[in-house]
Amino acid sequence: MGLVAAGGITFGGKMAHHPASTGNQLVSTASLPGPYTLPLAVPKVLAPISTSGGSDAFEITQQEASAEILPGTRTDLWTYDGTFPGPTIESRRGRPVTVAHRNELPVPTVVHLHGGRTPPQDDGYPTDLVLPEGWSGEPLMPDPQARTTDVTRDYTFPMDQRATMLWYHDHRMDFTAPAIWRGLAGMHIIRDDVEEALDLPRGEQELPLMIGDRSFHADGSLMYPALDPTLREHPGVAEEYSAGVLGDVILVNGIPWPVHEVDAVRHRLRLLNASNARHYELEAITDDGHRLDLVQVGADQGLIGQPVTHESLRLAPAERYDVIVDFAGVPVGSRVRLRNRLGTGGTREVLAFRIARTARDHSHIPEILADDVPRFQRSQATALREFSFRAGQMMHGRGWVIGGKAFEPTRTDVSTSLGAVEVWRFVADVHHPIHLHLVGFRVLSRGGGPPLRQDAGLKDVISLRPGEWVEIITRFEGYRGRYLFHCHNAEHEDMGMMANLEIT
Ligand code: C2O
Ligand code: CU
Ligand code: CU
């Protein structure tokens, strides 16, 4: 595949002059609530419809619904089971989960469990559509391997993987970005005995937090520059937004700039950046200007080996970070704000905690968190592949390409054999958060130097910064079949920046 080096790109760490995110911001015309006035909510945990036969079965209806996101107005959404975010699925490592999805939306959908170690037929390949009743549309790019179903589909997830927080979201060919924007995203937690033995903060002190940006029209409806607002036929966004759509309202679990009452003890924040294109750099600041440590205990694919303490933490789209913040000593009645150093105006604010009372802390952060984080050695690798992620030409106009090529479902871009260890080297023009399906990977290097401290552990998204090259290493294990890797800037993904990985 095409490669490294092109004029005008600086390699390495010199990135002084680049924007915080790649994309263009929509300016809301709605009147917006002040930050830290609305209470945080945690999405409800979905109850299984059956737990017999060694697996858990769930049902989700994909449906239109509306919610009062901005006080006094309603926002029409596309939802999993009527809420945004969708309900959280809780599962146990090694215990399979089946989710029966029913599509009552006006367009085809595809469910992908992001970070899941899932057989190919259940991984939500973009052409494996679940068609709504009476659908007559034709695919833009026919795919003979597509497994479409009418109205419903059972997705089975073996859950044979480390405990962590995954998320599920729409992955329909050409229309993933607007579908996620409209609300098709939810969280999925995998638990296991090893992690539960650790005494990390739990119960009320464990908070799954889906962070996403949106913009709103005066009537409360979502803004989005889709070329075809019905999302039926013509993919893509207005030209000025083709680098990514940024909102000016920061939602946490679907609520604009919420505030949450806490005891003055450690809390475990399970952070997910579910934004289409926005990057965040989070820091926790007390009212009197002190910064609290963000102690990282986990990455996309579960616990890291040892805790890593950060003053601030960058989150690229689709990344998850598992972080402990200790509110001990913060005066009762005062706040700790989680702020975004990459934001300006409203996008600088994210979430606030109001300290309600002092309390005994029963939690503990061990010095060793996990001893099962895979360590792949460069010497084990049987291939080194290089991929460039850049602006380029698609079939119909400008888009985003990998190694010079825009996505085609029928073309195999990489083929490897089950069990192979490989080093992949990525180079970027602008920000590209690159995601591999099926496998977790380790970050080997950035710009020829060591990874960032926050690159610790097993990841499934790697944030490429403008002009940067990064190496990752992984073993392709689990299942044979057709998988994807792609940019998780959702607009880039829809506009070509995706490729096929065939495991044989
Ligand atoms: Cu989060 Cu291919 O997906
Ligand atoms: Cu994924
Ligand atoms: Cu990209």
Q: Treating each run of at least 4 consecutive H or I residues as one helix, how many helices?
A: 3
Could you name the CATH topology of the largest domain? Immunoglobulin-like
Q: Taking all residues together, what is the mean pLDDT?
A: 95
- Which structural class fits the helix and strand makeup? mainly beta
Q: State the major sheet.
A: 7 strands, mixed
Widest beta sheet: strand line-up: 15-14-12-17-23-20-21
CATH uppermost class of the largest domain: Mainly Beta
**CATH H-level superfamily title of the largest domain:** Cupredoxins -  blue copper proteins
Q: State the distance separating the first and last CA atoms.
A: 19 Å
* Known CATH architecture of the largest domain: Sandwich
Spans of at least 5 consecutive residues with low confidence: 1-17
Classify the helix fraction into a percent range.
under 10%
- List each distinct ligand once: CU-O-CU linkage, copper (II) ion
Let me know the number of strands.
35
Please tell me what the overall shape is. globular
Strand content: 35-45%
What is the C-alpha radius of gyration, as a whole number of Å? 21 Å
Task: Detail the topology: elements first, then pairings.
Elements lengths: L23 E2 L30 E12 L7 E6 L5 E7 L4 E7 L7 E4 L15 E2 L17 E2 L1 E6 L6 E7 L5 H6 L3 E7 L1 H4 L9 E9 L30 E2 L2 E4 L2 E2 L2 E5 L2 E8 L6 E7 L4 E2 L1 E6 L2 E9 L2 E3 L4 E7 L8 E6 L8 E9 L25 E12 L2 E6 L11 E3 L4 E8 L3 E5 L5 E5 L14 E4 L4 E7 L5 E7 L2 H5 L3 E6 L1
Explain what the structure shows:
By secondary structure, the chain is mostly beta strands. It folds into 3 domains: 5-19 and 372-503, Immunoglobulin-like (Sandwich); 37-194, Cupredoxins -  blue copper proteins (Immunoglobulin-like); 203-357, Immunoglobulin-like, CATH 2.60.40. The chain is built from 3 helices and 35 strands. It has helices spanning 176-181, 193-196, 490-494, and strands spanning 24-25, 56-67, 75-80, 86-92, 97-103, 111-114, 130-131, 149-150, 152-157, 164-170, 185-191, 206-214, 245-246, 249-252, 255-256, 259-263, 266-273, 280-286, 291-292, 294-299, 302-310, 313-315, 320-326, 335-340, 349-357, 383-394, 397-402, 414-416, 421-428, 432-436, 442-446, 461-464, 469-475, 481-487, 498-503. The strands form 8 sheets. The chain has a 7-stranded mixed sheet with strand order 15-14-12-17-23-20-21, with no helix packed on it. Strands 16, 18, 19, 22, 24 and 25 form a 6-stranded mixed sheet that branches. A 5-stranded mixed sheet has the order 27-26-29-33-31, with no helix packed on it. The radius of gyration is 21 Å and the shape is globular. Residues 1-17 have low confidence and may be disordered. The structure holds CU-O-CU linkage and copper (II) ion (2 copies).
